[in-house]
Predict the structure.
Amino acid sequence: MPAKTKGTNAERELVHKFWSTGWTAMRAAGSGCIKYPCPDLLVGNLNANKGKGRKLAIECKATKAIKQYLTKKEVDELQEFCRVFGAEPWIGVRFDKLDWYFLMLEDLQKTEGENYAVDIALAKRKGLLFEELII
Amino acid sequence: MPAKTKGTNAERELVHKFWSTGWTAMRAAGSGCIKYPCPDLLVGNLNANKGKGRKLAIECKATKAIKQYLTKKEVDELQEFCRVFGAEPWIGVRFDKLDWYFLMLEDLQKTEGENYAVDIALAKRKGLLFEELII
C-alpha cells in the first residue's frame, strides 16, 4: 500500500474511533492548507474534562518502521496552530500491528538535526493509548 | 469552472482571509468525513472575543444564482457538529461579484420542503461581512 494511502486510512480509522466515543473529528484537506500550519486531525468534545471541554490537534503517523521521524517544521507548525486556535498539540503514532500511541511534544526525542523522533520503546513508555487520551 | 472547483477555490480564499487576520483556518477533507457531520471550514482565534477565544464552523457556498439553497441535513449536521465540538455554526455565502456574507442559522429562510434558503436580499439584510464576523 502506498504511504499516502496508508496514512489516509490510518487517519480515517482514528476519525471513526473518535466519533464512536462521542467526540467530533475532522480531517484536514490535503491541499489548500499547504501554505499554513494545519494538523491532520482536529477533534473536540465539549463534555470531556468534566464538562470543561477539550480540543486536540493531532499530527498522525502510521509506519512500518520501528522509529518515526518528525521534522522540526511539522512540530513547530502544530504548536503554532494550537497556540492560535486554542487546542492541545498531540502526535499520534501507529506502528505496524500495534495500537495508536499519543505523545505530547515534550516527550518526543530530539535528533541531532533539530528534528524529532519516536520509537516503539518511547511510544510505549511515554505515549497514551486512545482510551487514556480521551479521558 | 465546475461547481466543485468553484467551491474549493472559494473556501481557499476564505482560508487566506482568516489567516491574514490572525485566525487559524482548516478546510475539511472531502472524503472520509462522509459518514459524519463535518463543516467545510473550522476557524479559531484565542485572542478574539476579548481574549475569551472564538471557534467558528462554517458551511461555505459560492453561487452564480441569486438564491442559495441548503438542505435540512446540511444545517442539522452543522448544528450537531458545533454542539459536540463547541463552536458557533455559520453559513458563508458568496454570490457572484459580491462579498462573502455570513449568516446565523436562525436567519436562514425556511422553504416549504423543510430545507433552507438565502437570497441576496436576505444576505445583505441579515448577513455579516467578513470584517464584522471576526470582531
